[in-house]
Design a protein that fits this description.
Number of helices: 1
Number of domains: 1
Oligomer: single chain
CATH topology: Thiol Ester Dehydrase, Chain A
Strand order of the largest sheet: 1-3-4-5-2
Shape: elongated
Number of strands: 5
Order of helices and strands: EHEEEE
Structural class: alpha+beta
Strand content: 35-45%
CATH architecture: Roll
Largest sheet: 5 strands, antiparallel
Helix content: 10-25%
CATH class: Alpha Beta
């Protein structure tokens, strides 16, 4: 994912209910935020409803702490006939904005859906 002038799709601060026994944020919570952001980007590209069908690769790089500001970045990396691969990266900003670290990344696959919730073609030219 290029660093030049990228904007987060989603920004959120985890709360006390999102913390695990080790004092870090649950991996499932992070995964949900990534799925939300990826779905936004995929839905825009597909110009309609999409569904997550696979997480091809997921890597947790560093833990997220309570009070970190989480920024989720997503970009369509590939487009097939009915599906899209969306690269998703999460950074955590801490120390009142003094530190930003990459905490996780993954490649999610979304399928475009028609009105009957069946796969439909994605316009390759969009």
């Amino acid at each position: 994912m290029t660093e030049a002038h990228r904007e987060p799709v989603l920004r959120v601060v985890p709360g006390p209910t999102d913390i695990n026994a080790n004092g870090h944020i649950f991996g499932g919570w992070v995964l949900a935020q990534m799925d939300i952001a990826g779905g936004i980007v995929a839905s825009r590209r597909a110009r309609g409803a999409v569904a997550t069908v696979a997480i091809e690769r997921m890597e947790f790089i560093s833990p997220i702490d309570l009070r970190d500001l989480i920024s989720v970045y997503a970009v369509v990396e590939r487009v097939g006939r009915t599906s899209m691969g969306v690269r998703i990266e999460v950074t955590a900003t801490r120390d009142r904005g003094a530190t930003e670290i990459k905490v996780t990344e993954g490649l999610f696959t979304f399928v475009a859906l028609d009105e009957n919730h069946r796969p439909r073609a994605v316009d390759a030219a969009a």
